[in-house]
TrEMBL record:
<dbReference type="Pfam" id="PF01564">
    <property type="entry name" value="Spermine_synth"/>
</dbReference>
<dbReference type="InterPro" id="IPR029063">
    <property type="entry name" value="SAM-dependent_MTases_sf"/>
</dbReference>
<keyword id="KW-0620">Polyamine biosynthesis</keyword>
<protein>
    <recommendedName>
        <fullName>Spermidine synthase</fullName>
    </recommendedName>
</protein>
<dbReference type="GO" id="GO:0006596">
    <property type="term" value="P:polyamine biosynthetic process"/>
</dbReference>
Length: 202
């Protein structure tokens, strides 16, 4: 069911939908958020099930409606969340929905993720990279410089999860090599059309 339409300088078409009791955030051709059924976040958190009890802080680059926060909270964990989103309209919508959870510890930052990680000095236990332009991962997200800066934002023993959709086989191969050079200890899992890199900082 259609709820409302929104637009911003970054996303000219955004709509909120209600589907099976969940609020979804969609663009003209992509789903950005799906409540507690957001499959990439579920895939990551299932994979990191044994690690989650150790997580005290989470950095999320690319927020949607905050599905990752909601799923972690639903599983009974309450780390400190830092949410970085370049689109102020998306971030505002996310904070509106997340405000229903009064106990969630959220620091929201409206900034370009590339700029944020280049300047960031705080380390987190878990970093989730979930940055898309429609169904495409922007080129900078899979660059050596960006991933290296992301690594600096992760505490020793921490984890990184990188949500990726394959649009070009050549780009996919290049991205795998770049990720492996920054996070040698890693593996890849599949979640529908998404590929999820899970890396560890050792």
């Amino acid at each position: 069911m259609w709820l409302s339409h929104h637009q911003s300088d970054i996303n000219p078409y955004l709509e909120l939908l209600l589907y099976k009791g969940r609020v979804q955030l969609a663009t003209a051709d992509a789903l950005y958020s799906d409540g507690v059924e957001y499959t990439p976040a579920i895939g990551v958190l299932n994979d990191l099930k044994k690690f989650l009890p150790q997580v005290k802080s989470v950095l999320i680059l690319g927020v949607g409606l905050g599905s990752t926060v909601s799923i972690i909270r639903k599983r009974g964990y309450n780390p400190a969340f830092t949410l970085v989103e370049i689109d102020k309209v998306v971030l505002r919508l996310a904070l509106e929905f997340l405000s229903e959870d009064s106990e969630a510890k959220i620091d929201a930052v409206c900034n370009d993720a590339q700029v944020f990680v280049a300047e960031n000095t705080k380390q987190h236990d878990l970093l989730f990279i979930d940055i898309f332009n429609s169904r495409t991962v922007p080129d900078f997200v899979s660059s050596l410089s960006f991933l290296s800066n992301c690594r600096k934002s992760i505490a020793p023993g921490g984890r990184v999860a990188f949500n990726y959709i394959i649009n070009s086989e050549e780009e996919w191969v290049r991205t795998q090599k770049t990720f492996a050079s920054v996070f040698p200890k890693h593996h890849v899992i599949s979640s529908d059309i998404n590929r999820l890199f899970i890396g560890e900082v050792v």
